[in-house]
Amino acid sequence: MATRQTESIARFMRLPAIVLLFIWMIIPLAMTVYFSFRYYNLLNPAAGGWAGFENYQYFLTDPAFWQAIRNTLAIVLGVLAITVIGGIGVALLIDQPIFGQGIARILVISPFFVMPPVAALIWKNMIFHPGYGVFAGIAQSVGLRPVDWFGAYPLFSIIVIVAWQWLP
């Protein structure tokens, strides 16, 4: 059981972390809320004024905002479904004693080490490209016309890329 002195020392030692957390997270959050109620022009910050709830009314009545919400929910739910179900399947497969199990585990984890912009470029230029991508080559080899994945199915393409990166 801690004594009163050790409890106060522990509180004192936690203080820098709490102060840094406040500075690092709470102050920017408060500034974001404050600026959301103002007219703000990046080219001329002095020209702004108080907007009240007009900014929120603008976004809530804008059809593009609701389309963005639907797209975001589709991406989040699609990626979650693929990564949870696929992750459980991969975990069950990798758990089986097989030859090269260590290498297989490293290969399954390797997408975590690829930065998202690099992953997007790899998928865009090497896998999904309609002219010389991997999927285009497979389609042409079986007599099908290649598909422009980002042009025809952009939401699906993004879901596949993000799910690939976060699957294991």
TrEMBL record:
It comes from the Bacteria. Keywords: Cell membrane, Membrane, Transmembrane, Transmembrane helix, Transport. It is found in: Cell membrane. It comes from Amaricoccus solimangrovi. InterPro entries: ABC_transporter_permease, MetI-like_sf. Its main location: membrane. SUPFAM superfamilies: MetI-like (SSF161098). The chain crosses the membrane at residues 12-35, 73-94, 106-123, 149-167. It is a multi-pass membrane protein. This is Sugar ABC transporter permease. GO terms for cellular component: plasma membrane.
